[in-house]
């Protein structure tokens, strides 16, 4: 039962880490390699607002999410819109910006100390004999809530329907009057806010470290590649496959091999089925 419960928790955590990356790629076809940096940015920003400015925790979280989204929209508007469609340039630009953000925190002195966010709820409970703290239960609850909210947003709101239209057929959506560059900027803002949301939900379970930006990016890429780039359903399925594989690795091999699981998942998927579980990318035999 312990593997089941912690497998679910780890899988939902991976889903939260990857949602923003999947959203941005699905709508704008931009692989946001600054995704992990925005995760760390939101974590440190929440810590600064909470501990240096002395504002209440809920306000610190809200401000961090808003500023993360604004930073993402700014990156899209200033940089990505001008190189849109140039795939290698997009990768280089987003990765360079991500490294700049992370190393900026290192330069500012955010190293050598333990930075943590307080849990939303203290304490733990035993479920079928397995001790689970309330923060991890909250991760599952909030993860499901975020998925449901995104599903409703993309189906019941005008903006969400416009973003879905761009994702499904950009040319047809533009003929209907939808501004694809504006949609890409909005998607980047929402995606970076989702990265920040994942940070404020998950970081109370550990420490805020600069290296987490690189780890989160790799996990997000693994989930998206295995599930199929741009597929939300695929991202959820891939999160559970990789999440349970990581927990089994922790239980029966070593905890240090969790990253190896993610990297192997990317490698095997690219060899066996490059489009992933639910991706729309054409397979090699279809392209030839």
Give your account of this protein's structure:
This protein is an all-alpha fold and 288 residues long. It has a single domain (2-281), classed as ABC transporter involved in vitamin B12 uptake, BtuC (Orthogonal Bundle), CATH 1.10.3470. The chain contains twelve helices and two strands; from the N terminus they run ααααββαααααααα. The longest helix is centred in the N-terminal third of the chain and has 27 residues, at 2-28. It is globular. The protein starts with a helix and ends with a helix.
**How confident overall, as mean pLDDT?**
91
Strand content: under 5%
CA-to-CA gap between the ends?
Answer: 47 Å
* Class computed from helices, strands and strand pairing: mainly alpha
Number of domains: 1
> What is the tally of beta strands?
2
Q: Which strand order do you get reading across the main beta sheet?
A: 1-2
Residue share in helix: over 70%
